[in-house]
Specification:
four-stranded mixed beta sheet, disordered N terminus, disordered C terminus
């Protein structure tokens, strides 16, 4: 894009606040825009074509503000595997891209494509589509008043987080591994366990480098307010039993994170777990499921 949108300085980008205080929950005009874009996904077949969005000046400005904040934050806090992927990811600086702008690069690098979502997608569909190279992504933009945090996935999260991941063949393979396991099981309990493994690795995982936890997960990569703030959290070493027994909430800051000893340790842990995972394992490891906080 050639248009140079007026950019908001990161220092003036607004407070983070609590998730339940986020203005995106209470702004009627914003909710109408968000809900109209989300409604496009109703009944949409995975992988089918869909139209782009005519984004507003405010939405482009929000994108630019987040871009300006996250680029240096990635360099400061992201692990080496993410920085390598970032070098190959084509993320525009000057405005919100269309999904159709992002998918060709992903297809060329890893065979992945974005497919339309309206919000949080059921585990069976969301995880299962990853085996076949599809990642569910939304089109709406977070509220402009608090651009550095969103309590639900938005297009910035999907591009700055998963778009970076899916530019790397090694990271993209982890998505496929979890997707293959999801398509092999049949019970809600097993899918719930897989969703926790996905959540605490690909969404909010850390990777230790020289003894320091570095950011890996897409949820952290797309949230300036969370990407390097590990001191106030409980950081545990990655352990599959601990992950399987730890509930998560989507629309809140994460109080517990898991750190792999290295990126190879992350690969080995996900690979070994998913290779042996079945419905019986899910029943053995599972806890009573709690309703997800879906924003």
């Amino acid at each position: 894009m050639s248009t140079a949108w007026k950019r908001t300085p990161v220092s003036a980008a607004g407070r983070l606040g609590r998730a339940d205080e986020h203005p995106g929950r209470h702004d009627r005009d914003y909710r109408q825009r968000r809900d109209a874009l989300a409604a496009r996904a109703a009944g949409h077949p995975v992988g089918a074509p869909y139209p782009g969005v005519q984004y507003t000046e405010d939405e482009h400005r929000t994108w630019c503000t987040v871009y300006d904040a996250l680029r240096p934050a990635h360099q400061a806090h992201a692990c080496g595997a993410v920085l390598d992927a970032l070098a190959d990811a084509e993320i525009p600086a000057e405005g919100v891209p269309q999904h159709a702008d992002i998918t060709p690069t992903l297809r060329a690098r890893t065979g992945f494509a974005l497919t339309l979502a309206g919000g949080v997608v059921p585990n069976e569909r969301f995880l299962g589509a990853m085996e076949h190279g599809y990642f569910h992504a939304v089109q709406f933009v977070r509220h402009p008043a608090v651009p550095l945090y969103t309590p639900e996935p938005d297009v910035l999260h999907d591009v700055f987080g998963h778009g970076i991941h899916l530019s790397s063949p090694r990271i993209a393979e982890l998505y496929r591994v979890i997707g293959r396991a999801a398509n092999r099981v049949r019970t809600a309990e097993a899918l719930d366990i897989l969703s926790r493994m996905y959540w605490y690795t690909l969404e909010f995982g850390l990777v230790a480098e020289s003894g320091t936890p570095k950011t890996f997960g897409a949820g952290l990569l797309s949230s300036y307010g969370e990407i390097g703030e590990h001191k106030g959290r409980e950081v545990r070493e990655l352990d599959v039993r601990a992950v399987a027994s730890t509930q998560y909430r989507i629309s809140s800051y994460q109080p517990v994170l898991f750190a792999a000893r290295s990126f190879s340790h992350l690969e080995d842990t996900i690979g070994a777990f998913c290779a042996e995972f079945d419905d019986e394992t899910g029943q053995r490891l599972g806890l009573p499921r709690l309703p997800r906080d879906r924003g």
